Structure formats: C-alpha cells, structure tokens
User: Fold these one by one.
Assistant:
Number 1:
Amino acid sequence: MKVFENHSLLGYNTFKMEVVCRQFIDLESPDELKDLAAQGGLTPPYYVLGGGSNVLFTRDYEGCILHPVFQGVEIVEEDAQSVTLRVAAGTEWEDLINYCLEHHLYGLENLTGIPGLVGSAPVQNIGAYGVEVKDCILAVEGYHLPTATPFRYEAADCRFGYRTSLFKTELKGRCFITYVWFKLGKEPHFTLTYKALTDEMARQQLEPSLENVVRCVRSVRDSKLPDITEIGCAGSFFQNPVVPAVQAASLKSQIPDLVSYPAGEGVKLAAGQLIDKAGWKGYREGDAGIYPKQALVVVNYGHARPEEIKQLYEKVISDVNNKFHITLQPEVNIL
Ligand code: EPU
C-alpha cells in the first residue's frame, strides 16, 4: 500500500482537473483494503477512483481516494464454448480487450477504446455500439465499505440498467470492487446492430472477425470522440434521456429528424443531438468547450478550471431545457 498526503489528482482524472485530495492510497492487493479497515483507516469521506475517466472534480477533494492498482486476468473455468475470467479491478480495460484478441475470446470487442479500469466497468455498466458490459458479466466481487465485509453479487443481482447498476445506486460510495467475472465465447459471435459500426465495416469492406470489429470500433470512436491523451474529457458527459413517447412525438415537430430508440415504457433520445440542435456543438469559452464532433462530450482544451466546466455544462442543461423541455442529467460523477 502506498499512502500520499495532499496528492495532486491531475494525472488521475481524464478531465485533467488540477485539484488535490487530502489523502491518496494505492491499494496493491484486495487484502490491503481489509487491513486498512481493521486499522480503522477507513473513515469517510472516501472515494474509490478507477481510471478517473468518468468523474469531474469540481474542487479539491477533502477525503481519501482509494485507488486499486492490482491487476491480472485469471481463467477460472473453461469448456468447449466458453471461458470464465476473473479479472482484477486495477486492470486497464483495454488490456482486457487485448487479452481477448490474443486468446480469441468473443463478447467485449465492441467495447474497445473505452478508457478506465475493469473495476469501474460494472459500476456504470459501460456500453457502446450495441453492447453493454452486463452482457458478459457473470459476477462482481468486492468489499462493503467501511467494514470491508466481502461480497459477491451474481449478475442478476447487480441491477444493471442503462449506465447504471447496484454499485451506482444503493451501494454508491459504499463498495470497493476487487474482481469482475466475465463469461466470454470461444466461437465467433458478433453484435453488428449499430449503424455507425456496420457502415464502417462496409466502408472498409471487412468481413466480421474479432480483429476487424475491434479495428472498426476504434475508427468510429476516433472519428467522433477526443483522444484523451490530448484533450481533457470524460466521454459522454450526459446520459441519453428517456422520455414518454408522447413527449418525443411532440418534439418531432420541433426537430423533424429527431433520433429516438424504444426504451421500455418510453423513448430514448440522443442527448448529443439535442445539444447539437440547441447550437452548442463546437462552442468554446476559454479552455472549456463542447466537442465539435460529438456534442455529448464536454472538453477541457488545456487548463480549464473546474468552475468553468461547471458553468458550461449548467448553461447547456438550462438551454436544452428552455428549448426542448428536457432536463439532461450528467452521466459523469460530479464531486
Ligand atoms: N448526434 C448528433 N449530434 C451530435 C452527436 C450525436 O446529431 O453532436 C446524433 C448522431 O447523429 C446519432 C445519435 O445522435 O444519430 C447518436 O449518436 P452516437 O451514435 O454518437 O451515440 P450517442 O448516443 O451520442 C452513446 C454513448 C456513447 C457510445 C455511443 C456508441 C451515452 C451517454 N453515450 O452516445 O458512450 O460510445 O453511444 O454506442 O449513452 C460514454 O458513455 O462515455 C460514451 C462515449
């Protein structure tokens, strides 16, 4: 375990906010969390930080950041059709994708390119191009905080939904995920339902294969989303709103090409399109902006201060609400 006091978080959040925390702890094994709890070292406030790719720090954090750095992929079961992997929380998500490519395991390929750590993936049920991580998760292991009592939730008990789970709702701020269990296929099987992805496969004239799907997802992402090594951001800043069908129908008179997808009782709209139609795409104020190629992404072009990002996203919420009577909800965790 490595403990740092008054630690800069600049290198630990992809929004590149220049804030500090009171204490920062690198946990090199799950047992270290148990030791910490046993020594009475887990007193709130604390926050479990993965890759920092879905968080906006709006000020210095006056608590303790718990940062899992233990990594590794272990095969726990295998049969003719599938492999069960137990993957440590501190593993980079893209390292898992590369493991799947090397070992010819199917299921997660559409999720290539998502920044962050494996332990964070179930929290918001990461998703892209027609796949959500819940589709491949078997179980999630971890500790309840602050007692460090172990848990294991089977997928059916994780309450996965669109960008949400048990860990983002009832257990928010009260759990530390240590391992995620995935069940992946050994036989080729692809989800090619998302238009942008199928268009790219056709454009590049590629047959479906693990490598080709990964290659096309990466090119679609590169064409729409910023490179986080160059531009600060946290992916989609807002959730796509789900509204009653009647509201979507009336909005269609205002936005004839309104994008919508059926979603349970209601209709899911594309927040990016609403922000775009409201005229914010490419808007920039100082170093805070709305990404010119995808309006759902709030960006930090260099040294935007947290309050500048906050002012900008609040203006967007209020303007979209004035124009379309829809209140966008941030998808990122705001601290
Ligand atoms: N659109 C616009 N203008 C924009 C952005 C989008 O008109 O500025 C329209 C697009 O033309 C398209 C529709 O809105 O018809 C949807 O856009 P896109 O396919 O880019 O997907 P999204 O709904 O904006 C979601 C996820 C992304 C994920 C993509 C692909 C959320 C909040 N976002 O975006 O996830 O990569 O689908 O599956 O659900 C993330 O969560 O960080 C993230 C990047």
Note: Residues 238 and 331 are 5 Å apart (CA to CA).
Number 2:
Amino acid sequence: MRALFKDIKGLVGYYEKSPSFIAGDEMKQFPVMENAWLEVVGGKIIAAGPMSTCPKIEAGAPKSTVVKCTGRYIIPSWCDSHSHLVYANDRSGEFLDRLRGLSYEEIAAKGGGILNSARALQKMPEDELFDRTLDRLLAVVKLGVGALEIKSGYGLTLKAERKILRVIKRLKAVSPIPLKATFLGCHAVPSEFENSSDYTTHVIEDMLPLFKSDGLLDYVDAFCETGYFSIEDTERLMVAASALGIKSKIHVNQFNILGGVNACVNKNALSVDHLEVVSDDDIEALKASLKNDHPTFPVALPLCSHFLGLPYTPGRKLIDAGLPLTLATDQNPGTAPSGDMTEVVKLGSLKMGLEPLEAIAAATINGAAAMELSSEVGTISPGKRANFILTREMKGLEEIPYRMNEKVVEKVYVNGEVWIA
Ligand code: NIG
Ligand code: FE
C-alpha cells in the first residue's frame, strides 16, 4: 500500500536523518517543512519534500491513495514514555475523599492509594486484566499515541507483579505500536513488610532476576519519595538492575526534593520522572548527565500536577538550562486518570510556558529517546514507522494550546493505516 500526503501546511519533525533527541535551544527549532508532501509505503515513511518536487501518482493507480492535507499539519505521533496502564479499577471513590479535604498522602496513609489498587489487582484474573488494559491501549492509540511505556507496580507481590508484566508482554505481541515494559518493583511497601529496605531486598533478590530471565522487562523503576522508598533503596535497585544490563527510569521529586535526581544521574538512569519540585542542584546534575553516553531525560507529567494540584515542573527553566525536556502522561488511576498526550502538550504551553514546537518536541522525539525507540518513532524520517497525526485546519501550531477544549487531532495514522480520531 502506498499513500501520498500532499499540500501539507507544515510537516513537523521532518529530518532526513534524525538525531536521537534534542535539548535546550534546539527544541524551538524542531524542524517544520512548509507546503510539503510525504510518501508512505508498507507502513513506513519513505520520503518527503516541498510541493515543488511532489511525485505524481496517476489517478486510479493500483493500491495507492492520495490524501490532500490543505491547511493541516502532520506531526509525529506522541511518544508517551511514562504510563501505569495496567490496573484493575479506577479510584473515583478516593477522589471524593480528596474533594472532602484529604491529601494524596493522607489517603495513602489510610491504606488507600497504591495499596488500594494493589488489593484489586491481586484479585483480578490475568485475562480480565489483559482485556481491560488492551481497551486502554487502543483508546490512547486513537488519541495519537504512537509508542508507549507501561509500568508494573500495582502488584506488590511476586505473583501479582509477574501477572502485570505478563500482561504487558502479551500486549506487545498484539499492539500496533511499540511498547516498553518497566518493572516498577519499588512502588509502595506492602503491609507484610517491616520497611522499604526489606521489601527492596525482596524485589532485588527474588523478583528482578526471575522477571529478567523470563524476558518480562525492559527497565526498572522505584518511587523515590518520603514514605515510599529512600535514595538508598533506589540506588540498590539501580545497581542490581545495571548488573543485569537493565537501565532505570525513576519516580523522583514528586512531593519532596531528597537528592534523588543526583543519585539517578550518578547511576546513569535513562530518565527521572515527575520533577514537580526541582532544585538548582538537580538542574546541575541533569546538565552533567549530558556528557554521558545518554543523558538522564527529565520527564514532566503535567496531568499529575493538574489532577493533584501540585506545582508544574519548571519546564521553561529546564529547557533554558539546555536540557532535553520530555513530556508524558503518567496515566494511572490515582494521580493522572488520562492518557491524552494532546492535553499534556497543551498544559506544557499553558502551565510551563513552552512554545508549541518545544512542547511537541518534548512529547515526540524526546519521548522516543526516553524509551530508546528513536530508530522507530519520534520524528518523520525515512525508514521510521508511519505513525503520525493529521491536525485540523490551523493557522499555526499555537492553536494546539489555544483551542482549549476543541479537538486538534483530526486523524491518526499508525503504520500507515488511518485510525479515526
Ligand atoms: O506516578 N507516584 C507514584 N506512582 C504514580 C501514582 C500511583 C497511584 O497513586 O496510584 C504516579 O503518580
Ligand atoms: Fe508514574
């Protein structure tokens, strides 16, 4: 199947040969080819160029279509590098408690929060969990997500964590988009354990090697936070994972600045995620990581800030410091019950002061790099998957955040096939 997209108002993120990520001032320069064409064959991007060089497809040529994109942009599909897609039930009941004045921490202290999700997940049969998660996956694909990381973490026992990771493995086999599996072993301390250190030992000694040998994980994660896991627990997990050749993506600085960012950079983590609160020392540590083989990507999760009423990650400041800011959803039943990356991009501009191209780069090329999927997705480049979004007619990309509640994604293409938005 061949498709020619023509008269594209702006082809966003087009590189003949793309870098794996962009940082700092480069993010404003995420390329846009104006008045362009794009050719797709067999689910892959083949070529693109200005309309003055547009190839001809004769009317009625077999197995080919021409899509006129007048007034519309083509944008690489969103690359959501942080989600907790596998859970049993929502937590709308707790939300009512929040409206009545309880904080996230107070709900957790009553046995709600992650422990509540874990109780429900432990009871749910694997097939039902798979079906529910597949529905969520297909829903986000329709919203324009073209690559996704999925974490475990609502199991809190070896058996239940394995169930989640098996669900993710089964999803990988049927998913139209590439997926990465993260073993979030250290998410909360189950009541059977005395303390976070003992549970971390169980995760490291009993779960990690087993899940690795069963091919169930790509990354590890820990919730490094007061009342959850300490820097020392997190470091032990990162070291154990690294010895098995596994990189880390760590929840850090959601509520408190503990020094976890520096610890993660020192252990060469692939990303540090949340960062609702950030110190100047954290920024210096992230800058130092730019000298490593790969940087430690700062991943902001503005839906969580929005939903919990937390501060927004100082995204403007991180980009101005020269860093490769990344945006993701954090989709989960407790702190961000949404997988809508377009909303994330809007909040990037509305709440973090990002220019539209900076927010788009953070949600595409940098999201792909934070999942090590740059060779497949994240930009419009020959040889990559034909995963992209066709927008509504727009005068400029600033209409993405400007059109607050209006749909800007008109169609979604996955491996060259149209998925109606
Ligand atoms: O990323 N902060 C840790 N984990 C999730 C939320 C967990 C939950 O409340 O269910 C997050 O926000
Ligand atoms: Fe999260």
Note: The CA atoms of residues 145 and 365 lie 13 Å apart.
